[in-house]
Amino acid sequence: MSSNPNPLDEKYLELSDGRTLAYVDIGDPSSSRLVIFFHGVFGVGTAPTLQPFLQEKNVHYVAPTLPGWGSSSPRNKDVPYHVNLASDVTQLINHLHPHDLNLKIYLAGGSYGTVPAQMLYGAPFDIFPYGRDVVACLLLAPFSPFRLHKDYAKTMDTPSYISVGPPSQSIPFKIIPRMTSAFMKTKISSVEKCEVFIRQTLFDNMGPEEKEKFKKYREENNKQEGEVERSFAENVYRSVHETWDGFFEVSDVIHSDWGFAPDALDEEHNRRPILIVGSVEDTMAPDAMAKWLAANYKNAHLRSINGGHLAALFHLNDLWKQLFELL
Fold first, then answer.
1. Percent of the chain clearing pLDDT 90 (strictly above)
2. pTM, two decimal places
3. DSSP letter at 221?
């Protein structure tokens, strides 16, 4: 792969075990309203703009890069993913907001990023002490915990079924992710190739209504035509530029023990609203998963949007407003 310098806004935190956590942030770093957003597969932490509603609320928006993606070190495999995640994010919050007694944390994620968001939402407070400061959670195109959602694979498309469904767990030695990575390396070996791949996978498949929503989104956010696709492509390229470790464990993480069961959380966890946003035409994270989550979280609020996997992106400002109104 050709060289790809890190963006000027990416920052790095040295963790207690010697690993590095990459992150970006935007907004007011002194604000007690802290938004933590987790990226999806072939993504990195990014914060190019802040939605107008979040600007009005004067939030501090932080987007960490998950372990084994981008410039974040792979995790210690001897530690369960949800425990490692809680430790990393605790250290990040300690670094950014030490001694803030008024902290209000809003967890959020898109696609695969909804897995770590849920892990922290449901984490026992002895594992994630800052869980007591979490006030709400936003899940966009979410995944359900596969070990608990027995029918999770019924509505998946074929690529997703193979890559993270039953075959990914039944075939040993990580053969499927290794074969997939070998194929993907030919598709995303440069930013230009990444852009072609992104357009074919996500943008070219939009229906007329979703394309109109996308156009409106670009206009409202002062994005030139092609700018969003290029940004996505750059993130895809950066996500595996240094290591594929994060990619190799995606299926294992979704299938793993998340540390809790959504329908068994205690009252202190359940007091915090969780807004679940599914898209009726999404074949990567099917709407059925969003509905399962809504049926199992006690304080869940389900919203269904027309469109595919990216549909929620074009409604983000309104979704943040809806989440805050639930409080």
1. 94
2. 0.96
3. T
